[in-house]
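Severity: low
Component: inverse-folding endpoint
Summary: output formatting inconsistent between runs
Steps to reproduce: submit the following structure tokens with default settings.
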């Protein structure tokens, strides 16, 4: 399975911060925002990842992450000239995906919780073994603000409604999706919505019609943070800061994940951080010591 991080858009809700820099490169406490979705793909044992962003912002992502070899991965890059919808990621990424299944994660979504690796592995296994699509849901207080999935006791999705007046459940659909390879053909057939975009909802509706859409709920003990506004970005920063201060452990530390999975060696990590200063690199040094 391969991964795609969609990190495009203009981030208008975060102006003036995003006049000069991509939203997904803004700091969430001690690391760039894109570290968080990238770490989720790493926890799912996905090592080939395509990062899609605007022509203006792609050079900065390349400068930050390179080809991924420093963390034992293979990173590729592609342009989305205009924000034409989430489903366009599969059209842009067709040559990258080839014959593999794919996981799409939005570049401004943060996921945290004990057991996340296991849940990701389960979703990946469902896609690979049964050719079903798996979307993720999070229990929210006010589901009227979100796309809401109705499910049965077997995690089958029965319906999805966008910002319903009378929600049939409390599970908001979040920015993490696992699809079989057929998603490429489905995305190509999606018609633009009234907003002129290729909506991910249309992709999910196609799998729903085939009765091949599952929902993996992120229940108590998990956090899902969408960093699309100033307030949400501040809340995410405070959340990460509090956890790291309390535990002394870094969240979404790419090098630590790569080291734990033996994608890189201690010697390789040491050569990367020698001479670098700051708390982040001090943490990595303590890991090796």
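Observed output (run 2 of 3):
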């Amino acid at each position: 399975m391969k991964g795609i991080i969609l990190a495009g858009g203009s981030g208008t809700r975060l102006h003036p911060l995003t006049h000069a820099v991509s939203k997904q490169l803004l700091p969430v406490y001690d690391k760039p925002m894109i570290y968080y979705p990238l770490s989720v793909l790493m926890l799912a044992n996905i090592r080939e990842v395509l990062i899609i962003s605007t022509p203006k912002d792609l050079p900065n992502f390349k400068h930050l992450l390179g080809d991924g070899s420093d963390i034992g991965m293979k990173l590729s890059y592609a342009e989305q000239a205009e924000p034409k919808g989430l489903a366009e990621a599969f059209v842009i990424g067709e040559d990258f995906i080839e014959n593999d299944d794919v996981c799409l994660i939005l570049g401004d979504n943060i996921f945290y919780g004990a057991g996340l690796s296991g849940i990701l592995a389960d979703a990946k296994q469902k896609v690979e073994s049964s050719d079903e699509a798996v979307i993720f849901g999070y229990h929210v207080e006010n589901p009227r603000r979100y796309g809401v999935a109705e499910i049965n006791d077997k995690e089958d999705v029965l319906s999805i409604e966008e910002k319903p007046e009378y929600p049939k459940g409390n599970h908001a659909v979040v920015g993490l999706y696992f699809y079989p390879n057929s998603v490429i053909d489905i995305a190509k057939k999606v018609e633009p919505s009234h907003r002129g975009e290729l909506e991910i909802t249309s992709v999910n509706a196609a799998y729903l019609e085939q009765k091949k859409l599952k929902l993996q709920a992120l229940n108590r003990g998990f956090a899902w943070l969408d960093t699309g506004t100033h307030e949400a970005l501040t809340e995410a920063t405070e959340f990460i800061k509090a956890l790291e201060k309390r535990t002394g452990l870094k969240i979404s530390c790419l090098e630590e994940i790569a080291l734990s999975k033996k994608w890189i060696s201690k010697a390789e990590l040491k050569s990367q951080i020698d001479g670098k200063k700051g708390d982040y690199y001090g943490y990595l040094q303590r890991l090796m010591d």
